[in-house]
Amino acid sequence: QAKRLADYQAPDFTITDVELWFELEPATTLLTARYQLKSQRKGATELVLDGQQLELLSVKLNGQQLTPAQYQVTDDHLRIDQMPAQAELELQVRLNPAANTALEGLYLSDSAFCTQCEAEGFRRICYYLDRPDVMARFTTHIIANQQRYPALLSNGNKVAEQQLPDGRVQVSWVDPFPKPCYLFALVAGDFDCLTGQYVTQSGRTVSLEFYVDKGNAARAEFALEALKRAMCWDEQTYGLEYDLDSYMVVAVDFFNMGAMENKGLNVFNSKYVLADQQSATDTDLYNIESIIGHEYFHNWTGNRVTCRDWFQLSLKEGLTVFRDQQFSADMASATLSRIDAVKTIRTHQFAEDAGPMAHPIRPAQVLEMNNFYTVTVYDKGAEVIRMLHTLLGAAGFRQGMDLYFARHDGQAVTCDDFVSAMQDANGRDLSLFRRWYSQSGTPELTVQSSFDAEQQQFKLVFSQHTAATADQQDKRNLLLPVRIELLAKNEKQQHLLVVSEEQQSFSFAVAEPPVAVILADFSAPVRLHYPQSVSQLLTVVQHASDGVARWDAMQQLWSDLVRQAVRSSEPLQVPAEVVALYRALLATPEGDLAFLAELLTPPSFDLLAEQYQPVPVDALLQALQQIRRQLADELAADWLNCYQQLIPAPYAYRQEQVAARALRALCLDYLAQSGQQAELLLQAYQSADNLTDQLAVLKACRNATHPLFETLTAQFEQRWREDVLVLDKWFALKASLPTKDTVYLLPHLTQHPQFSWQNPNRVRAVYMAFAQQNPTIFHAADGKGYQVLQQVVLKLDPINPQLAARLVTPLLSWRRFETHRAAQLKAVLSQMLAQQGLSNDLYEKLSKSLSD
Ligand code: ARG
Ligand code: ZN
């Protein structure tokens, strides 16, 4: 029952106006919904509305009550056969938000009502044409007990509030912008509210309101300021201004993802709103700013211009991720945010391409839409937008954006429409470029270089090839913007090459053989094969103009060393030049210290694993351990010296400080590795005036399985027991300790009074950390790690299918492991697939993983 992009048809009917009356009670909420319907196809008489898990009480057509014989109700639909071309339809349904643990539709987060409708959640609120190309004006009336629910919120502007005779209150909202129902939101609860103001560039005053748990208003201040920065940035960068009188953000504890851009009323996972120096790390603050930006930017890229159908999800997500990346680059460190994005692609996105769920950024078929909120659609989607930006330049890209809004404001459109706007605004033929939208997989770009001394010419030969993926056999050549830099003694040359053929060469006039930097700034999301010697790589590390390229060369160097060690089964020996480079850099830490910390961090297990088929798990873990030990031992004095030079100032979230903390954390990590330095670690923990520094100590102790880990984590748990967002960090630390006992500890963690299977943040804190940050134990040879995750996924599926389907991901790519582990994984997956009553979410992933 998968849906296909190729089958798209405009709907027979559309809904132009919606009026909703909610009478809120946790277990029995009554909803009356009135729709103005219009035929869009001559002769259409059959209306099929989507609906799930609804109790239908009444159907009225143009004021006339219909008898059950006049409509049909199935598990997924309400069908009316004799629809006039224009009609008013009024439905009444009963809902049970208190029983809704899937956190989709209308549900309770603690005692507050909230909604999540993207992608197809509105059908759990009422029967509707639940598809994004049906755009209606919404009016929402919320009727509730005022003592229990003082805040009654929905999209748009509040237009009325009245006391009802029975003591309840009715609040009415009108959203003047037509929108698809996935952007609908309703929130009711008892919150504290932090307010602010923003005056737009055209002089309109917007009221900014953050609704948070009682007592937490002060913790929303950073998010409020970040929102103001995002509003200002979008005006300056894209000329885009906010369009309603108020912008509301509600922070809830029960939420399946990061946040949701509902028109005028964002709902956020509280983890991405609440933060102060005691309870949040530098990384948390960075993420908050980026997600606040992301949801705000959706107001134009997503809401004003939305998607025609869900296959076009990347239209709004790829573009909005690109915009939030630009924003983060401007607010924090540009190089570091780019490195972050590159790591996401190389680890998770390349892995997705190599696994059973491979799909293009515009998928061609989908069983459960919730399964396609992926790193491919989001992050590779953003890389595709970035390539357009690279090819057209900032000014050309902006012209394309302007044309896109001029053409499509108020419409539901496709990825093709977006590329056409870019193409037309720039007079460029982008037809080959469009292939990025339909072709899945990671292109391999192989480069050979040669120098002709006589001609004084340097030549680069590129060949591109994309291997077949699980979803798609035939692959074709793509258009790749390739930034390069040639480093010679007396000159540096930078070029933007456009590689579009299967094989293509370029020549450059240069007096002596240069060292080449290929794919500077990771200008295309490809896997690069360009063999370079240690000394060439070190030249790039020291001399490339682009920070991303310098970091990348260092990563390449480590990857090469690991590969040699894995091939030869000899212990990995860190070359003397590398030790010397570390020593020199640590001696006088200066410049961008955050970059330095990143430069000195070897690749993660996941990043390395992604480069092998099959993944030699044990050999990789061993090689990484050998690197750690040597860097810790040979540079012990250097780490200590560097650490001592970086004297902490009183905490502030400022870039120089963030950077210094990152480098100190790296030093601590290696200092702990020796198993000693207990005094120094203890002192670092106790003197810290912020969570970033404290966690650095805990992580260092974890990575080194240092004896202090138990003592300090126990203290930490004592201190933060009542503060779940911080306690989640404790759950994650415990679950990621790389010792055998951890697998037995996990069930105990779930017995903690603050743990709840209903709360996705708790579940992720324990089990995502286990599966993603503890490769040693997760991949243990006895298969126990896999079994633990299997049990959790099966337990969660009936509670929260979206969450279950996210958690199963680390098990799916069984084909990528060596025989022994592949067999264990396959067994675990087959057992799951044999279960009765699996959700669509889980079924889609398991069946794809096991099909041949
Ligand atoms: N549109 C939201 C965002 O990226 C995420 C919605 C995710 N929905 C889902 N069903 N997974 O900002
Ligand atoms: Zn988004």
UniProtKB/TrEMBL annotation:
NCBIfam families: pepN_proteo. It is an enzyme of class 3 (hydrolase). Residues 441-530 form the Peptidase M1 alanyl aminopeptidase Ig-like fold domain. Belongs to the peptidase M1 family. It comes from the Bacteria. The gene is pepN. The keyword Protein biosynthesis does not apply. Keywords: Aminopeptidase, Hydrolase, Metal-binding, Metalloprotease, Protease, Zinc. Residues 535-850 form the Peptidase M1 alanyl aminopeptidase C-terminal domain. Its cofactor is Zn(2+). Residues 36-183 form the Aminopeptidase N-like N-terminal domain. InterPro entries: Aminopeptidase_N-like_N, Aminopeptidase_N-like_N_sf, PepN_Ig-like_sf, Peptidase_M1, Peptidase_M1_dom, Peptidase_M1_pepN, Peptidase_M1_pepN_C, Peptidase_M1_pepN_C_sf. It catalyses: Release of an N-terminal amino acid, Xaa-|-Yaa- from a peptide, amide or arylamide. Xaa is preferably Ala, but may be most amino acids including Pro (slow action). When a terminal hydrophobic residue is followed by a prolyl residue, the two may be released as an intact Xaa-Pro dipeptide. GO terms for molecular function: alanyl aminopeptidase activity. It comes from Rheinheimera marina. Residues 222-436 form the Peptidase M1 membrane alanine aminopeptidase domain. This is Aminopeptidase N. Pfam families: DUF3458, DUF3458_C, Peptidase_M1, Peptidase_M1_N. Its EC number is 3.4.11.2.
